[in-house]
Amino acid sequence: MTTTGHVDVLIVGAGLSGIGAAHHIQSAFPERSYTILEARDAIGGTWDLFRYPGVRSDSDMHTLGYRFRPWTQAKAIADGPSILRYIQDTAAEAGIERHIRFGHRVVRAAWSSEEARWTVDAVHDGAPVRLTAHFLYVCSGYYRYDAGHAPDFPGADRFRGTIVHPQHWPAELDHTDKRVVVIGSGATAVTLVPAMADRAAHVTMLQRSPTYIASLPAEDPIANRLRRLLGPRRAYAVTRWKNVAFGTLFYQLSRRRPNVVKSMLRKAAARALPPGYDIDTHFAPSYQPWDQRLCVAPDGDLFRAIRHGRASVVTDRIAEFTETGLRLESGVELDADIVVTATGLRLLALGGIQLTVDGRDVKLPETMAYKGMMLSGVPNFAFTIGYTNASWTLKADLVGGYVVRLLRHLDAHGYDQCVPTNTDPNVSERPLLDFQAGYVLRAIDEFPKAGSRAPWRLGMSYAHDVLTLRYGRIDDGVLRCRRRTGDLAHSP
């Protein structure tokens, strides 16, 4: 196999995280070379992949947007196409596009301590491609892009209508005047139901159990006013911290006073739904707030669709599909022309890349995540996993900044390798994501572990991570650095 080039930093993934990572590297080290390998044929990652009606983010764009590039549109809860344009524009304005190799799926990355470099194997148009890099930075997220989670429903093969998973939405699918059943109660279902209800004959959200749903304004009036008063950049910074503070306080209240938050959400739902609506059956989950991610209904769109009779919620279990719809365990039958299986996602650790260090395959579940962004025993490597209780990009930006600080540290001391090493016998293993969502529980055993104490614990506090990743010491006694010709040692 022929090696097609060497770069200082190799980034995997050209989605929200990868474009942000490239911006950090390019801004800090304009003289250094970098390449982005993207498995698909377009920029945007998740925001290019998902094309279902109404696709949007649950996070506001003042925190989902990049720290270095203000979001200037009026809507804070933005739709997918707007987010995609934002990512594309960021890449175009910084000249990042010319560093991307599309259609390159990375399958293996092998580290050599002797050479202090990664050898990365990818597949492009069915042919093997090889590159080498000094530092490997994986920004592939954790969703499996080729398939979502699709349970095997009894009788689905005899249904005469259309069954579609949101991850593979057919562009030609027309739901106008059709009876639609959306199976699921997570963020995708909560988005789809009101979006389809405008044109469908009726949309039913069929859920096994309820989810916490909060109604938030699609536009942030404070942010829009600040933008007029302070200008986009200063207003963006203020709004970003305002939203971080509000989100943190609400999360802490949810964990410490769950009954208070449950009461708040229940009362808000009661105000938005028709009088006498059975909230306890359809909008009162059995788990505590933030055991799973809170869903957002911008301007209460889901509640509004129910109130106007265009949508309804059924809480029951599926017994089987019929020729004309679904039969539920209660005996109720739901007629449908289209069934949308919004049944969840599948996770894939590090995009499925097999890592090797000095000839030995790395078994991810046997590694531990250092500061939530590096792996024990894996040199010159970083990855991005965002917060489960806040915007993904808040963490992605911090990881990008830390990688810059780390590379500068290596330069300043003449090192060419760094590796997190766990020698603390008092650190016990924890799941990397302490989150009860089904898509996490189905795959968490395939991921690296977190530890019981810093710096191995994956924090979920942006303010704490700002102090740790943006201002904390690089030479913390755990991250070990060396020169190729020297012995492994703590950095001074």
Automatic annotation (TrEMBL):
GO terms for molecular function: flavin adenine dinucleotide binding; N,N-dimethylaniline monooxygenase activity; NADP binding. It comes from the Bacteria. InterPro entries: FAD-binding_MO (IPR051820), FAD/NAD-bd_sf (IPR036188), Flavin_mOase-like (IPR020946). Its cofactor is FAD. Keywords: FAD, Flavoprotein, Monooxygenase, NADP, Oxidoreductase. Belongs to the FAD-binding monooxygenase family. PANTHER family: MONOOXYGENASE, PUTATIVE (AFU_ORTHOLOGUE AFUA_8G02570)-RELATED (PTHR43872). This is Predicted flavoprotein CzcO associated with the cation diffusion facilitator CzcD.
